[in-house]
Amino acid sequence: MSSVAQESPRSALFISECDWLYQDFSCREPGSCVLASPGYPGLYPPNRQCKYLITTSSIHTQVHITFTALLLPHNHCSTDYIAVYQGSTPSSHLLVTLCGNRKTPLQYSGPNLLLEFSSGPPVPPYDYNGFLASLEFVEKSSSTESSNIIPIKTTEPGVMSKSVDGTSAPRHVTTKPGCDIIYSGNDTRSGHFNSRSLSWRPSCSMTFIGRPTDIVHVSLFNYMLRAPSCQSVVEIYDGPAEEGVKPSKRLCSPLTKHARDPSGRFLEQQTFVSSDNMLILVLRRLGPPASSTETNAEFLDGAFLFHDEQVDGTLQPDTLCDVDYYGLSSPLEGRISNPGTQHLFWNIEGALRCSQKFIPAANQSVTITVSTLARLSPDPHCHTQCGDGGCHCVANLLPLSQMDHLLLVTDSGQAVSCLCGDFQQQWLPVSLRSWSPLKVVYSVAHYSWNMKGFVFKATYTFNNDAVCGQSVIMQPSGEIMSRNVSSVSMTLNYYFHQECTWLLDSRVERQLTVQLATHQNRPCTAWNVSVHAYEENRIDGVGQLLHTFCPRDHTKEYSPPWRVNTVLLRLKAMTRTLPQYAIRWNSQIVRANTRVSGPTISPVHSA
C-alpha cells in the first residue's frame, strides 16, 4: 500500500489492498493527488498488480500525470511495467507502457484512465523502488464546439435579434458581452457546453436553436450553486425566455451535482427535452467567486443534441435513444445507424440498449435491410445461425443481455432476427419485410465513451402494398388470395414476416366452412393460418384456438360449431419464401318458413 497515498487522505479512494480511485472533484487543489507504487519510497513487493483508476466528470477535463521518480528493472518490461489504458479495465485500449527509468509526462482526456502497475520476481541488485507521480486535472481552455458558438452582444433590455438560421432568437440580456451564447442546429448537431469557459457575469444564458423539425435534448453533467436560499439558480425554458414566461424547471441553490458518485460510477442523467426547436438555459449567480480558483466558482456544464424528428424518428418520453418511425408521417425511406456517438452519451457507462421502432400504416409494410455490421465483439458465448426461419442468436452459458447483439423484434416481443458473436460481414445484407410494427434493438453489454460498441448501418422503406393487415369481412362467403410481392433481386438472407387477421362476421346463424389451399410444401413453423373464436374484450380479438391449417395439408376444410357466426383467421409467417395461398369460405344459412296458407285438413276428414 502506498505510504504517499496514506499521507493524502483526500487524494484517492481506497478500493482494495492495491487498487485506488482518483476523481477530479477530489483533486482540485494543486499537489493534492499523488500516485505511488506500493511501499514507496521503499522497495515494492514482487509479483503484484496494482490498479489506479482515474476518472473525470467533464469532457473539458484533461488528465496530466508527471513522474517525479521511476526506477524499474531494465530489460524486464514484460514483468515490471506501468501500463496506461483509455478506459476502466485492462481490456480497454492501451495508450502507453513505461518501464526502466523512462519518465514520460502523460496527457490524456477522460472519462476514464486506468494506470496498471505490474511487478515480477525480485531482480538484483534489489534496490528498485517503483514510481512516484503527481496527478493534475486541467480544464481545457477551448471547447470542441467553439467554432459553433455565437456570442451575444446586447445592451438594451428586450432586444430581439436574428440567429444564424434567420429565425427570431430571444437572447438573455446582459450589459456586457461574453457570457451569453447561441448553439445553432445548422452548424452543429451535438456538443458540450461549459459556463467556466466564459467570462464571469452574474447572469449567463445558453440558447439552443434547432432546425424547424428539431427538438433539443440537453443533459446536465455537473453544476455547483453555492449561494444560500435560492439566491443562485439554473432556469430551463422550453422555448423563448420572454418577459413574464416562467421556466419549465428551476434548480435552486445551495445545490451541487457531479457526474459521478463517490465510488466513481456515473450517476443517472438529468435530462431535459424541448417540445419545439428551442431550449434556453439561464445561470443566475449571486456574486463573483471569492477567488479565481475553480473550486469557488458557481458553474454549469453538460451536453446537447439536436434531434430531427422528421428524419431521425420521434423521440420517446423519458428515454435517451428510443425513437418511433410512422409510415404515415416519416419519410417513406431512410437510413439508420448505431447510436452512442453523440456527446449526450459521454456519461453513460455499462449496458446500453436503444430501440428504433417502425410502425407501418394499415396499407403498408416496412423493409429493414442491415448492410453494415462492424466491430461486433466475437463473443464465444454467442453465435448467429441463419436459416429459413431467419437469423437467430444462440447463447451459450451467458444470457443474451450480457453480450453485444442487434435484434429485430415484433410488438409482442417475438425475436424475428438476431445478429451476434461470430456474424460475418459477407453474410450481409440481412433484410426483413414485415406488415406489422418492428423494433431494431441495438444492445451493447459494456458501453463507454472510449469503447462505444459495434457499428451498424441499415436502410428502411415503407411500402404501400395493402397485402396484409387487420380486415373485417361481412359477406357470408368469399375468397382471400395471397399477393406476390417478391422480387428477383432478393438476396439469400431476405425474410418475410407476416401477422394478418381477417374477422369473418356475417351476423346471421350459419354453418360456416373455411377452406385453405396452397401449392407450397412448407413446415407449419414457416407459416400457418389458424382459426380462432372472436374475443371482443381483447385488443387483437384473438380468442380460443379452434383449428390450424399448415401448408403441407395443401387443401383442407374446417367447419366450426353450428351457429358460430363470427370467427377470426390469423396468418403468421416468418420465412424466406412469401406464403402463397387461397382462403375460401361459405355459409349454409337456415331461414325460417314464413309462408302464409290455410289450415291443414284433418286426416280423419280426408279419409
TrEMBL record:
Q: Which CDD domains does the entry mention? A: CUB
This chain's source organism reads Coptotermes formosanus (Formosan subterranean termite)
Tell me the protein's name.
CUB domain-containing protein
The answer to whether the entry has keyword Disulfide bond is: yes
Q: Which SMART domains match?
A: CUB (SM00042)
Q: Which UniProt keywords apply?
A: Disulfide bond
Specify the superkingdom: Eukaryota
Enumerate the PROSITE patterns for this protein. CUB (PS01180)
Q: Which InterPro entries match?
A: CUB_dom, Non-NMDA_GluR_Accessory, Sperma_CUB_dom_sf
What sequence ranges are listed for the domain CUB?
Answer: 18-138
Under the heading Pfam families, the entry gives: CUB (PF00431)
> Listed GO cellular component terms?
plasma membrane
